[in-house]
Amino acid sequence: MKRTRFTDEQIIGILAEHEAGAKCADLCRKHGMSEGTFYNWKAKFGGMTVSEAKRLKTLEDENAKLKKLLAEQMLDLAAMKELVSKKW
């Protein structure tokens, strides 16, 4: 998985600077990022606090873990069905 250079706290801080009146181009130049990245962050983290962002991260991790478990269970179930359906 791709690692980011910025933590959630830093991202929310940059977005707060923008809300305070700083221009997007100036912020991007100052922090060394593209405007596309800035707008992606704004779509994902806009209006959040640091605690909400941490909660979102933990929920995303838990959701990924549950999806993986579900996929493994479905694969096991399909293998069992195929094994039972074979004629001996």
UniProtKB/TrEMBL annotation:
| Gene3D superfamilies (UniProt xref) | Homeodomain-like
Give one Pfam hit by family name. HTH_Tnp_1
Could you state one GO biological process linked to this protein?
DNA transposition
* Family annotation (InterPro entries): Homeodomain-like_sf, Transposase_8, Transposase_8_domain
Query: What Gene Ontology molecular function terms does this protein carry?
Result: DNA binding; transposase activity
Protein name per UniProt: Transposase
Origin species = Allgaiera indica
Classification from the root reads: Bacteria, Pseudomonadati, Pseudomonadota, Alphaproteobacteria, Rhodobacterales
